[in-house]
Specification:
By secondary structure, the protein is of the alpha+beta class. 19% of the residues lie in helices and 35% in strands. The strands form three sheets. A five-stranded antiparallel sheet has the order 10-9-8-7-11, with no helix packed on it. It starts with 18 loop residues before the first strand and ends with a strand.
Length: 201
């Protein structure tokens, strides 16, 4: 009895894992609302095999209000949402349905406005976008009001909690400050990160 096993599993491995990102122009300020609607639409219409995710890149912004540090999320790309879809699976009828959703303007196209052919983002653009999001998540801090050398701040965390200090050096890249604190009448330099201090109201 002959065994014929040569033609089994000839399809390229993990082909279905290749995805592309598409930019969706939406009314500014409605990004979150559109994302919530599309997330439900993907499930309702059975598009989960086509659309991997509806992606809204956010950054965390820390603002000082009334002497307290308040965190809020801000859109990294106002007026845009991104669809990550498996390559070659985003059908015209899906594009049509998504384009007709309230507050959606159109997909990013090849330059002919809403009537052009939709195009995916270049790999470099995706990497930049995802890299930026990772970077924001790692550092998690964007100060609306920058720290200034010579400014007096209050320490709110760590062994010097409740002490005031004067900023001697600001390292915005690493989100760190060199601060001089007076302890028992002597000036002592300490290094703190942005989350350990707050501006004096």
């Amino acid at each position: 009895m002959e065994e014929t096993t040569s033609n089994i599993n000839v399809s390229p491995p993990a082909e279905q894992e290749l995805t592309k990102y598409y930019a969706l122009r939406v009314v500014s300020g409605k990004e979150r609302k559109v994302k919530e609607y599309l997330d439900k639409e993907v499930v309702r219409s059975g598009w989960t095999e086509t659309i991997k995710q509806v992606f809204l890149p956010m950054e965390k912004v820390y603002k000082v209000q009334n002497g307290k540090k308040v965190m809020r999320e801000k859109n990294l790309y106002p007026g845009y949402l991104f669809l990550e879809a498996f390559e070659g699976k985003l059908a015209d009828d899906m594009v049509q349905v998504i384009s007709n959703v309230s507050n959606v303007m159109h997909f990013l196209t090849d330059g002919k406005g809403a009537k052009g052919n939709i195009i995916s983002l270049r790999k470099s653009e995706v990497n930049k976008m995802l890299g930026k999001v990772d970077e924001m998540n790692d550092q998690g801090i964007v100060m609306n009001e920058p720290f200034i050398v010579g400014e007096t701040i209050k320490i709110i965390e760590g062994p010097f909690n409740d002490f005031n200090g004067v900023i001697e050096e600001v390292n915005d890249e690493k989100k760190k400050l060199k601060v001089t604190v007076k302890i028992f009448g002597r000036s002592t330099p300490v290094e703190l990160n942005y989350m350990q201090v707050e501006k004096l109201g």
